[in-house]
Amino acid sequence: MTKLLRGLKVIPGKTPRLGTRKTDNLLGLDSRDDARPLLADSISAMQKLQGRLGAEGERSVLLVIQGMDASGKDGLIRQVFTGVNPQGCSVWSFKAPTSDDYAHDYLRRVSVQLPRRGNIGIFNRSHYEDLVTARVIDVIDDDRLEKRIGHVRNFEKMLNDEGTKVVKVFLHISKDEQLKRLKTRVDKPEKHWKFEPSDLVARKSWDEYERWYEHVMKATSTEWAPWYVIPSDNKWVRDAAVADLLVDTLFEMNPQPPTLEIDPQSIEFEEVLEVN
User: Fold this and answer.
1) CATH: 1.10.3470.10, 3.30.70.260, 3.20.20.80, 3.40.50.300. Which one for 3-256?
2) Nearest CA to 171 among 71, 85, 29, 261?
3) How is residue 135 annotated by DSSP?
């Protein structure tokens, strides 16, 4: 694990205690200018590692992004994945379940959006909405939540066993920072499209969201699908940390492109050209 990520991982079985984690933690960075070259280096490294992952074609990566409203999920995707080969990357944003979603099991809608082998998949919100949000608004009770936690642990273990590395990030912002961002969405016409009245409703349940996120992350942060709590009041810290996490994950996977099954020296291009 890199120096930038130290202390961000949720230890399996340990409560992350969001209230004690600083949302404005700079992670040792001095300024935005300090973070900019780190982000650029990470994106460059990710491009190369993504190419190797695609060439290998055996495994994939799934980045799950969760957080309170206005925590920066869209901005993170835009900043970190700009420059990454779109042919090897997929992004899916999960909204409120539709009537068709409710006609199936809750994991069905995420299952069909999983990344292909050789690709990086990004979930903007995810199956964790069906645990945390569903519990906050009383769609499910405690007993059903515990059952879903078991489902998700098994689901993510299956993905890992089948070659998909799951990495989950919680974008941690303060309540004051959220209010500032929500006001910006109202004050600036070009950001009106981002504002949803439901954000204000959810804000009233801030403590409940934190409570259930803590409970769920404690139970679902595993060695095969860990959670990381990313301080996100400063967007540039958020971007640098998540990009570093992705590079660290891909580097650890160490994807290997296939080698030629014949001796390269035995290929005679003149003959090939004559035949064609």
Assistant:
1) 3.40.50.300
2) 71
3) H
pTM of the model: 0.94
The one-letter amino acid code at 198 reads S
Rounded distance between C-alpha atoms, residue 98 and residue 208, angstroms:
24
Residue spans of the domains in the chain: they are 3-256
Q: Tell me which residue of 145, 4, 142, 10 sits closest to 64, measured CA to CA.
A: 10
Instruction: Give 112's DSSP letter.
Output: T
Q: Which of 33, 45, 62, 56 is nearest to 2 (CA)?
A: 45
Task: Round to whole Å and give the CA distance between 92 and 185.
Answer: 22
d(CA 108, CA 103): 10
SS3 state at 197: helix
Alpha helices in the chain (DSSP H): 32-56, 73-81, 99-102, 108-111, 132-136, 142-161, 175-187, 197-203, 206-220, 235-253, 269-275
Alpha-carbon span 98 to 69, nearest angstrom: 20
Angle at 133 between CA 131 and CA 135, to 5 degrees: 65
pLDDT in tens, 195-214: 999 899 999 999 999 999 99
